[in-house]
């Protein structure tokens, strides 16, 4: 797999700080996954070390153990003969006190053209959030043909990743800083917030 090539689009790194480029479909999905520094650190590690992708069923094949600029990854989505591989390269990564994540961009041959990022952040109130942002457009005949089906699939994938990160980080959250109603900041109605 490690064939060096450049991303298949010119706006490299736009998912890091924006703005999102024109001429693409945009995705922005943010979900609260819990609260507390231990949960933030566990979620960030799961994003950076590919566990999020693996646990979500994407079968990542990577050139490195963690997401770092230049690392290449091939992810496959779908089932059986409908499983489509796509090669990407990590274009930015960060691991900080309040924000951890990375963005990867499509390489030539990928069914789409664009970039996607996966970020965990902890806010001043201790709440931990997971965000998927992407800009993309079809790069192959079959993704152009699928046109209107692609955005709902991308949104479903982003929601699945959010649930996966929440599940992977939950053990750390259980031992983490309690919210006003308990470790997961559940309200009196029992709903995780």
Question: What's this, in brief?
Answer:
By secondary structure, the protein is α+β, with helices and mostly antiparallel strands. Helix content is 27%, strand content 32%.
**Mean pLDDT, as a whole number?**
84
Order of helices and strands: HEHHEEEEEEHH
The biggest beta sheet reads:
7 strands, antiparallel
Low-confidence stretches: 175-193
How much of the sequence lies in strands comes to 25-35%
Rough shape?
A: globular
User: How many helices does DSSP assign?
Assistant: 5
Specify the structural class. alpha+beta
Q: Could you characterize the architecture of this molecule?
A:
The chain is an alpha+beta fold and 193 residues long. The chain has five helices and seven strands. It has helices at residues 14-17, 37-48, 51-55, 141-146, 150-174; strands at residues 25-35, 61-62, 72-77, 84-95, 99-106, 112-122, 127-138. Helix 2 crosses helix 5 (150-174).
Tags for this entry?
alpha+beta; 193 residues; 5 helices; seven-stranded antiparallel sheet; 7 strands; 32% strand
Secondary structure layout plus pairing:
Layout: H1 14-17, E1 25-35, H2 37-48, H3 51-55, E2 61-62, E3 72-77, E4 84-95, E5 99-106, E6 112-122, E7 127-138, H4 141-146, H5 150-174
Antiparallel strand pairs: 1-7, 2-3, 3-4, 4-5, 5-6, 6-7
Helix pairs in contact: 2-5
